[in-house]
């Protein structure tokens, strides 16, 4: 129900339903390319350079479990529509409408509907999102109450996936540093037919790429662990940070103004003292 007591109006038909809606974004396509690149690196190179059949099967199983977890979590995070059900016609709602206190409500003038304060309107997706966390540019969809757990699962599985690939590549890099010819001879039985220089180039490029990815994903995972620990959303964090920066700037401006006034007062006092001294000198004895 909106403030005028009328039934909620359906959201605008132009809203994006999920990540797969057009238009796709370049950065979203880049995400898919990076994922495919990691899979190619592992299945076409890394797994074939392992030391024996045990290490081959263990790394293959670990990586494949992480890859399947990534695909499943990514599918749900991307395909679920995180819209607030209050924006939908009553027959399309999946969550029962709970009565809300007025203090818990806000109104979206874009969707023309009253909803919980934790729901926010996303300009990119053109809809209100239930317990809005953020609009993920990498997936090109909003993350909210309905798909947040899949988003967290995606971050965790990508972290494990990249750590698995990086650990393997780092082991090969160390082996190359110790004896590159022996490493080349060891993998010459596989279908990988590259000379020693080529091996150095491939292993080094992968090391830089995977180390960068592990660091970036670790930062994201750490950030969301901190949010869970504090019990807030990304949106809450951004708003509180903006408020903190504004408060700091305001405090600095007030301090600067106070300093200016004190300097002006000191200058006035000095001028008055100088005037009095000059007047006393001019008094005839
Ligand atoms: Zn809205
Ligand atoms: Zn969005």
3D architecture notes:
The chain has 285 residues and is mainly alpha-helical. It has 3 domains: 26-81 and 146-231, no CATH class; 99-143, no CATH class; 232-265. The protein contains 5 helices and 6 strands. It has helices at residues 26-44, 53-79, 148-186, 196-230, 234-282, and strands at 105-108, 113-116, 120-122, 127-129, 134-136, 141-143. The strands form 3 sheets. A two-stranded antiparallel ribbon has the order 1-2. Strands 3-4 form a two-stranded antiparallel ribbon. The protein is flat, with a radius of gyration of 30 Å. The N and C termini lie far apart (91 Å).
- Biggest sheet: strands side by side, in what order? 1-2
The kinds of small molecule bound in this structure are:
zinc ion
What do the pLDDT scores average to?
89
Structural class designation = mainly alpha
Instruction: Classify the helix fraction into a percent range.
Output: 55-70%
Report the radius of gyration as a whole number of Å. 30 Å
**Subunit organisation of the chains:** single chain
Largest sheet: 2 strands, antiparallel
- Strand segment tally: 6
Short description:
Helices cover 59% and strands 7% of the residues. By secondary structure, it is mainly α.
Keywords:
disordered N terminus; flat; two-stranded antiparallel ribbon; 7% strand; 3 domains; 285 residues; binds zinc ion; 6 strands; mainly alpha
Topology at a glance:
Blueprint: H1 26-44, H2 53-79, E1 105-108, E2 113-116, E3 120-122, E4 127-129, E5 134-136, E6 141-143, H3 148-186, H4 196-230, H5 234-282
Antiparallel strand pairs: 1-2, 3-4, 5-6
Helix pairs in contact: 2-3, 3-4
Bound molecules: zinc ion (ZN) (2 copies).
One zinc ion (ZN) is lined by residues 108, 110-111, 121, 127-128.
């Amino acid at each position: 129900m909106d403030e005028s007591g009328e039934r909620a109006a359906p959201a605008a038909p132009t809203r994006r339903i999920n990540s797969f809606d057009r238009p796709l974004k370049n950065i979203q396509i880049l995400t898919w390319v990076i994922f495919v690149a990691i899979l190619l690196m592992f299945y076409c190179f890394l797994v074939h350079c392992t030391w024996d059949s045990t290490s081959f099967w263990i790394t293959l199983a670990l990586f494949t479990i992480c890859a399947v977890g990534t695909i499943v979590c990514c599918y749900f995070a991307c395909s679920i529509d995180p819209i607030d059900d209050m924006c939908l016609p009553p027959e399309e709602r999946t969550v029962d409408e709970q009565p809300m206190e007025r203090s818990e409500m806000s109104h979206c003038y874009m969707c023309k509907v009253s909803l919980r304060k934790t729901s926010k309107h996303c300009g990119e997706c053109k809809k209100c999102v239930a317990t809005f966390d953020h609009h993920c540019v990498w997936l090109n969809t909003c993350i909210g109450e309905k798909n947040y757990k899949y988003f967290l699962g995606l971050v965790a599985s990508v972290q494990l996936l990249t750590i698995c690939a990086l650990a393997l590549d780092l082991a090969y890099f160390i082996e190359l540093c110790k004896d590159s010819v022996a490493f080349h001879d060891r993998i010459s039985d596989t279908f990988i037919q590259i000379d020693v220089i080529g091996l150095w180039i491939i292993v080094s490029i992968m090391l830089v790429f995977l180390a960068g990815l592990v660091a970036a994903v670790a930062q994201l995972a750490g950030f969301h662990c901190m949010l869970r620990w504090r019990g807030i959303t990304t949106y809450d964090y951004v708003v509180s940070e903006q408020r903190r920066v504004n408060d700091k700037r305001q405090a600095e401006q007030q301090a600067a103004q106070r300093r200016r006034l004190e300097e002006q007062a000191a200058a006035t006092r000095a001028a008055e003292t100088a005037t009095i001294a000059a007047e006393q000198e001019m008094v005839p004895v």
